[in-house]
Design a protein that fits this description.
Elements: E1 29-31, H1 36-45, E2 49-50, E3 61-64, E4 70-73
Parallel strand pairs: 1-4
Antiparallel strand pairs: 2-3, 3-4
Length: 79
């Protein structure tokens, strides 16, 4: 994946490995971008997929990285 400019920290990279997921994710990340729709589209372009874990209709989007580790992309915080 391309590296983001230095001003966009912290950053995470998705790296594909040959081993399959062996169990439930031990770490769950929630991201709160300025623009949820744009961030979901950007993550999908880098290999993430939307997943249904039974969340129903929520303000966040549940996604998984290429190895199947789930994370959420939250909407903007209410003021």
């Amino acid at each position: 994946m391309p590296v983001e400019p230095a001003g966009n920290l912290p950053g995470l990279d998705f790296v594909r490995i040959e081993e399959s997921k062996k169990g439930k994710s031990r770490l769950h990340l929630d991201f709160r971008p300025d623009d949820q729709d744009a961030e979901v589209a950007r993550l999908e372009a880098h290999g993430a997929k939307r997943v249904d874990i039974g969340q129903g209709e929520q303000s966040w989007v549940v996604m998984a990285d290429p190895e199947g580790n789930e994370f959420c992309v939250l909407g903007q915080r209410r003021q």
